[in-house]
Prior knowledge:
Layout: H1 6-17, E1 23-25, E2 42-44, E3 47-50, E4 53-56, H2 61-71, E5 79-81, E6 86-90, H3 93-106, E7 110-112, E8 116-123, E9 126-134, E10 137-142, E11 146-148, H4 154-159, E12 163-165, E13 179-182, H5 186-193, H6 196-205, E14 218-221, E15 228-231, H7 248-272, E16 280-284, E17 294-296, H8 304-308, E18 316-320, E19 324-328, E20 331-335, E21 345-348, E22 360-362, H9 371-377, H10 380-395, H11 406-415
Parallel strand pairs: 1-7, 11-22
Antiparallel strand pairs: 2-6, 3-4, 5-6, 8-9, 9-10, 12-17, 13-15, 13-16, 14-15, 18-21, 19-20
Helix pairs in contact: 1-10, 2-3, 10-11
Amino acid sequence: MLGGGPAGLAAATSAARLGSKVLLLERYGFLGGMGTAGGVTNFAGLYAKTPDGFAQVVRGAADELLNRIDALGGLNAPQDGMQGRIRVRSYDTSAYKIAADQWCAAHGVQLLFHALAVGCVREGDELQALIIETKSGRQAIRARCFIDASGDADLAHYAGVPLEYGDGAGNALYPSTMFRVGHVDAAVALAAVGEFSAINALMAQAADRYAFARNGAILRPQKNPSQWRANVTQLKAADGRAINAVDAAQLSLAETQGREQIAEYMRFLKAEVPGFAQAEIIEIAPQVGVRETRRLQSSFQLSGEHIESSAEFEDCIGINAWPMELHNEGRIDWKFWRDPGRQCNDLPYRMLLPQGLRNLLVAGRCAGMTHEGQSAARASGGCFVMGQAAGTAAAQFGGDFAALDITRIQSQLKADGAVLAT
């Protein structure tokens, strides 16, 4: 399994718990993906809004991880936003890293850190090996089957399966550099910032004095209320389009650009926002927070219409409960489900299946989705769902992922606590 974010973690632990021998490869020295390396610091898409309030609809593997983070004292109570339309769970990134290690160890998942995918060996419709670079040199990892949860579809790219980028016109969701600030006067800040609309109004009033990268911010307290996470940067290439995070030169530009924008935003926070006068940066994420790069061009693509119409599928593997969150130039556009009674949609098994390879699945933000569909299901909730399904399928693998009995996969998912119907 390639990639140790929510999709890779759920895939690896699910497959191992069902008796498979699993090796999880991760480029960093810790797990968590964008949730740790990208500094996201909250799980999104676990809860669906219902007429009676919020219900947790992403369960099973996700519960195991959340329980472990909570046992370490690193999980916040649910936080609502967008006038009560969304709910997230924030966490301490250090607790997440430790909990993920413990989770993998408990199920016998073998870990190889500091491993970068650089190629593969393919024969016809079968992957034979994944080629990686490590401190020990170049290695070939052979396996019966493979799961690409790299976020950037790295293995699928090297294998030559059909992929897409962005909206087809060269535009992708803009990345951000995430950061955390400490020494915040929590009571004063909460009263001033409140919902997103309050901080957005403060930014609008000061727009002539500061160089904001985009309109509006997501500024919320962590478990320790004196520490706040900030999602406000927007990283652009020279042509104004979103940084292409699989282009080395653009990705390098993004890292320095993000830190420059953070310095400017801190100037605003300290001078203009009540409760932040003594605030200091306590962490800038180890890497740019990437939202979209390559996506699988599977025979089925989850689309924006599937999100808005609360689509249901016979090959459902779980629920997506995050709306479309489109990071467009200078702003964020949100699109919700049209049915007030079902503010979520199914995710189908077909979106994990690449064309032309029988022993590879692709899970997470690089799975089979359109640009709009990916803006919703890329959130951690959807990634947990896809990962658990991929790991369950791997444990049942008999030579061809497309030939597996979906009802058997669904039965196992339900037995393991996953929610397949709302």
